[in-house]
Amino acid sequence: MFGRHATQSRLVPLWGLVIALCFSLVADLAVAQEQPKRRNLLEMLFGPRQQVVEPSRPLQRQDRQPRARRTTNNSVTSISTGAAAASAVQKPPAKIENAKKVLVVGDFVASGLSDGLITAFEASPGVVVENRSNGSSGLVRDDFYNWPQELPGIIAEVKPAVLVVQIGANDRQQIVGSEGRLDFRTDAWFTAYEKRVNAFADIARQTNIPLVWVGLPAFRPQNMTADAIRLNAIYRRSVEQVRGDFVDVWDGFVDQEGRFIITGSDINGQQVRLRGSDGIGFTSAGKRKLAFYTEKSIRRILGDMTSPDLVRLDADNLPDLLSLAPTEMNNVISTSPISLFDPELDGASELLGSAPLPMAPILSPRDQLVSNGTLPEPPAGRIDYVRLPRPQGQQSTATP
């Protein structure tokens, strides 16, 4: 008992000492935080430096032009796309009044072709592309849209210089006509269909308009692609009979093995998406590629009208003519016209060759040695003259 109470009596002073030390440490920390920052030598000489706090200004909205980022080889440069960049984009030239018209007819594929041709001839003021296609039309359903009846009126209205046709994507169906009902892919169907194609192409021959018939491309459905191959053979035969141009675009929309492709090379060789998600429609790059194959024949037919440098001179773009005042007209000296064959045109009085040529000057022995590599014969009696007298009837000989 007594030992336990003695131990507790010894611990009480120790606990008190620990508590006192804790309070002293807390007090020292508080004092240290309240102490001011020690001054350096400059502050002791010139006083403490006063900090100037600028009042915060509200943010103001600034209307700035958007900026684009242009990536170079190893850096990224920011360029403004404001009015300066907008002015750099040149507008296409306006079409002239007597521009040649390219009439495009057919189905939805022809509609995409016309969009590509408009882009192809955008910079040609002498060419205008007229789109008169009907997306759901064809040569089978003449009850929906009868092309042999409608086309002559369209040609008379537009008065085209070239007729471009691309049709057949909607014709894979039964023919109903005077022959009865003909199922697709039968021999009777192809015979009747070729007659309709011939009648369509004959309209261009009767109107004496150059015909450019564009074949069908490949499609994603395999049966549709197989049918397009056989239809293209019919189109080619009919167009050749009327001496038109058949444009084969097949290789532009298949790979090296002849299979349908969604993505391929555009007209610049870059890999882009050419067809829509359904495998039938065309993207902008695909439409431009259709036009790339077709515009070659159009440019050959139209000639200089497809040049982008073709400009029509009128009162708006004629150069200013120089006009002289009446007082200046009195000082003008008029001269009679001179013929191009007049000898006095270049200041002479005779034509070239009328006088004999001057005789060639006699060259000195040195000049003859330099020019011809030979020396003239020495005169008779000189020491280097070693010729013997010629006997009668013999030629002279020289001794070495």
From TrEMBL:
Any single Pfam family the record assigns to this protein: DUF459
InterPro entries (UniProt xref): DUF459, SGNH_hydro_sf
Region (Disordered): 53-76, 368-400
Superkingdom assignment: Bacteria
CDD domains documented for this protein: SGNH_hydrolase_peri2
Full protein name: DUF459 domain-containing protein
Annotated source species: Peteryoungia desertarenae
